Amino acid sequence: MSLRNIAAGVTSARIHWSLWVMGGLVLAYTVGLMIPDSGFNPFVDGFLAMASVWTCVAVSWFAAYGAGRGRRVGRSVGRGGREGYGRPELLLAAAAVTANTLADTQELIQQGTGVATYPAPSDAGYLLFYVLFLASLGVLVRRQLRGSTRSMVLDSVVGSLGAASLLAVVLTPVLDEAAAAPPSLGTAVALAYPLLDLLLLAAIAGIIASHGAETGRRWILLVSGLLLFTGADVVFALAPQAYVIGTPLDALWTIAIAMITLWIVRSGTPQSTSPRPAGSVSAVAVPTVSILAGLGVLILASQVPVSNLAVVLAALTMGVATIPLIGRQRALRMLSRTDELTGLPNRRSFYADAPGRLGSVESGRQSALLLLDLDRFKEINDSLGHHVGDRLLVQVGARLASQLRAADLLARLGGDEFAILLANSGSDEAVVVARKLRVALAEPFLLEGITLHSSSSMGIAVHPDNGADLTSLMRKADMAMYKAKSARTGHHVYQSDDDSHGDVRLRTLEELRFAVQADQLELHYQPKVDLATGDVRGVEALVRWNHPTRGLLLPEHFLDLVEEAGLMPTLTRIVLEKALDQAALWRASGESLTMAVNLSASSLVDRDLPDRVGAMIASRGLAASVLTLEVTEEFLLNDRERARDILTRLRALGVRISVDDFGTGYSSLAYLRDLPIDELKLDQSFVFPMIDNERAATLVSSAIALAHSLGLQMVAEGVENSVAYADLVSFGCDYAQGYLVSRPVPAEELTGWLADRKLTAIIGGS
User: Fold this and answer.
1) Deepest in the core among 186, 311, 312, 743, taking most CB within 10 A?
2) Is 50 exceeded by the pLDDT of residue 49?
3) 82-94 CB burial, b ≥16 within 10 A, e <16
4) Domain carrying residue 561
5) What's the CATH number where 457 sits?
């Protein structure tokens, strides 16, 4: 056993037996006081009384001096250092018990001599008890409240003042009598006792308020002991002439001292502590009761005479109690006008402050409103989680604020939408600011260890040219923002014809939702030719919207709306199901064609996509190699880690991966090395100029060579003439698709085209 454990065991045993002796003496003294007698009993009022309190003194000093000693003796002795000397608050409490016991002893001696003086020497000891114990509580409460919340400290103050105001009412006769007496040492002593009792009761209430219901037995001992002590003092103060030694009142003081001693003992031993729960009953009850007490004292003072001190304490109770209420009201007002995520003004605040900043139309002063929306923010939330999206919004808000003037108003309206009101700015100044903000947001964001690139779309409307009030200005800026988003220009200043565009967009959006449900979406298929043999090896599925009044709409007319409406997952499922159904039909009829399907970046953030694709393929009895999924360079470059995860899982199923629009990206080609890719599709912007541009032809030849060196196949898009076709054959390109081969056509038409092509090949071969 270690030296530390031995020391702790010895200390515990000594205190254990000392407590039994102290308890026995206090019990014997209390029982003795209950037995009627004719006067002073030397055994009970002398021996038992002094033995009880002096045993308390011995136990309290032993416990206070040893507090922490058992915990530190191993370290101290082991290092050759000196032992611990207890905690200050317990040493002060032990000194207070000693002072009170000395005063009791002096009082007993004075009683035996029959000489009565006032103030007596014992009064010095009694008063010293208050001073020392209040100092002990001060040290204790200061440490307990260190690091506490402001509200907890205020609760303690309110509890103290409320309790003191009640006791001041009870002690009104004593206080008034002492105050009316001629100034003297006796008057000062007489006034000191009730005032010190006030402080003691205030300290008790403060302890209860700051520690709550979970204070534990040791705190119950202290609070109960101090309440007994104060209660006995109040009874004595109200009728001092009726007091004689040897009454149950003496037992109250002794029991109180014994309970305080027990608190010293328990406080000197290590105990587990837990912080006060914010919602504990006493956390609310003590301040509430104190406020009611203060209010009751003020009402009582209006009906009957009470001491001025009671009125002052009650008023202070009510005054301090209002401090958290005022702070709470200010906090609520601030919260109602502040976006809790970014700390920027919220929609409520913006709509309240912006009209005053716009000024009157007659003033001739212009203001510009910018509505900013992050592009593809939903993808970040879906792929990385909302907590990452929230962190992105915080950083976006900070970057926007850093680019604006103090006179400008920036607010987060909700989601990923921000509003900026530029003071004294027209459309030209607003465009300059918009470009500056776009540059700031183009810098990469580092979130969760992932580097993200973000872009934004901004709509600009100018007051008063585009609207005389904030409502109309917001509507015009909103139209301009969607025009910027659909045109991918980054920003757009509102024009008069944007009104019609906005109406068309809203109407089309509703029609699109209906089209998804009414099966108005259909697929057209464009064949891919093997340039080495001239055979058709596969097709690419391209979605079309068969609009009931506007005819067949190409993807560029509705895909942005699909993204905006959050319908891309649904559209992806529909396209995959239709494409695989058609692949199964062709396979059943003897046509072994691969099926290529384009996937948007927003579809690829879905972690469950590989599982769903695998289930679709298996349910149709197809080989996974039938399906080729085409992804864009933008997705591969912006979120490489997620791309690697999704594409690796798809490749594990046997699905082929193709990079669409290859060559249009502006970043490193390192993804060709790092990601599981089978095929590159050379963008038509490289194929078109090959006829009369030698450098373009060289680029195409080099790209094909690069693909082959990496073990990838190359598909050329946009092949529209025989010269380009022949060049691609000479460069060793693997596949070609374009109008020279066939336009995208419905499945039935393509089936006939394939049959005719086979027939032509047979006739030509014969």
Assistant:
1) 311
2) yes
3) ebbebbebbbbbb
4) 509-765
5) 3.30.70.270
